[in-house]
Structures are given as C-alpha cells and as structure tokens.
Design brief:
alpha/beta, five-stranded mixed barrel, 8 helices, 25% strand, binds hypoxanthine
C-alpha cells in the first residue's frame, strides 16, 4: 500500500483482480505496435477491471494486462500504458509497475517509441537505454512525490541486461533517453537543449515507471524504438502516424529481441 500518494490505489488489491496460477517473474511494458507479442496467454484482464489501474485512450495503445508465456518464461505484460500528457500524475503513470511487482515480477522490460537526437541514428533503429534524464521529474513531477523515498537512480538501468540485449542484436544502439511531458513535439531550440545535455533519444514515457521499478528493487531493461529523427536542423514535422508506422516496420525485430532477452532473464 502506498497510502500517502493521493489517488493512488493499493497494488495488492489491483493484483488480486488478475488471474494467475503461477507468479510471473518478468514484467513487460509493451509500447506501440508490440501489444500482441505474448502468445498463448493464460489470462487477459482489461485495465478497466483492475481496481486503480489507469485507463488510457491513445490510438495504438490497448489496455489489458496479459499473463502468458514468452521465450519459455511466464511474463506479465502491460499492453498499453498511460502517459503524463493524458493528464495523469507521475504516480498514476507508475502505478501499473506496482501491480507487476505485486504479481511477482522482479525484472521490468520497458519498451517505447522515441525520436532520435543522435545524428548517427536512423528511423527504425532500436536503442538500449543506458540512462535517462527525467525532465518532468526534475521539475517536480516525480512519481514518489507525496510518499518520499530517496531512491538511488545512478544504477537504474541494469548493465548486464543491456549487454545481454546487445549480445542478441549486435546492431542495437545504446544511449540516453530524455523524457519530456509532451504531448507537443519539441521545438528546434528544445532539441538543441536535449542534445547539449547528452541525450540520444527523446520520448514521452518510461521514466516514471523506471523510478517506481527502482523503488521496488526491480532490475530494469529499457529499449527504445527510434521511430523518427528529432534533429533541430530538420524542419519537417513529426506525426503520430509516422511514429506508429515505424513501430510496425520494426515490430518483428523488436519482438525477437524482447523474446530472446526474456528467455535468458
Ligand atoms: N519526440 C518526443 N517523443 C517522441 C518522439 C519525438 O520526436 N517520437 C516518438 N516519441
């Protein structure tokens, strides 16, 4: 229970609404396009049927928690997530990770779509997240506000899991993920700022979930799909459709990588 965070429910009550016969060890957050990765699902629970689970409404993001086998492991997968740009607090965005943990998950594998700030990246690249810059969090929108826990984040992303992923997919990029609140995309000046602070990719998710996972002692692997380039000198606007389309294009490779990694966690 996390009683002091206003509006955030009890993860144990939420987890009790999910039918499981065995405890899943690995939790997955499946971003755009990866939703149907878990086959032979043992159970599917709509977010609407899980007490306290936030329900989103962005196209491309379904809303159900699936427990099933992937790479021979029992996993609990969140098909779809909510974002701060939908008006949710960071604590609410992080709540589903508490549910995964309450179900038994010790490792979190989180995927997302991101814009590529590193000029050597191309759309369709996959990037293992080595570290993040949580801009809304630095400005006060941290998921632990309200029930302060002084969680170390210097080792947030598990280096052994990054090495495991690179071993399976040698083309995998590595880099730093900057989280912005969105939903508008960045101005050219903002993209220059993000590059100046060392970010390789920019997106609108993941960091709140990772803070919560680290509070709970979970190991974390994050993989970004670079769906578009986000370069300040590029004047062409990014579209949500382009982001979804690139996600679909690399789905198979992304799915294979996630499956291979899960099999060895
Ligand atoms: N900026 C922010 N978030 C994103 C982008 C981007 O260019 N692409 C996908 N998510």
């Amino acid at each position: 229970m996390n009683p002091t965070i206003e509006g955030v429910s009890d993860p144990a009550v939420a987890a009790a609404a999910v039918r499981v016969t065995e405890r899943p060890r690995v939790g997955l957050i499946l971003g755009s396009g990866l939703g149907d990765l878990v086959v032979d699902a043992a159970s599917r629970t709509a977010y609407a049927d899980i007490p306290g689970m936030p329900v989103g409404g962005v196209p491309g993001h379904a809303g159900e928690l699936v427990v099933g086998r992937l790479g021979g492991q029992l996993v609990a997968a969140l098909r779809g997530r909510v974002h701060m740009y939908e008006g949710h607090s960071a604590a609410t965005v992080g709540f589903p990770v508490r549910v995964l943990h309450a179900l038994g998950c010790q490792t979190l594998l989180v995927t997302n779509a991101a814009g590529g700030l590193n000029p050597t990246f191309v759309a369709g690249d996959l990037m293992a997240i080595e570290d993040h810059v949580f801009l809304p969090g630095l400005a006060g929108a941290n998921p632990l506000v309200g029930a302060p826990a002084f969680v170390s984040m210097v080792d947030a992303y598990d280096t052994a899991l990054v090495a495991l992923a690179v071993g399976f997919d040698p083309e995998l990029r590595r880099g730093i993920y900057a989280m912005v609140a969105g939903p508008s995309y960045e101005t050219a000046a903002e993209l220059r700022l993000l590059r100046a602070i060392g970010a390789d990719a920019v997106g609108m998710s993941t960091a709140p979930e990772v803070v919560v996972a680290r509070q709970l002692g979970m190991r974390v692997l994050g993989i970004s799909c670079i769906t578009n380039l986000a370069l300040p000198e590029m004047r062409a606007p990014v579209s949500h459709e382009e982001v979804l389309e690139t996600g679909r294009r690399v789905r198979e490779r992304f799915g294979r990588l996630v499956t291979d990694v899960v099999a060895r966690i």
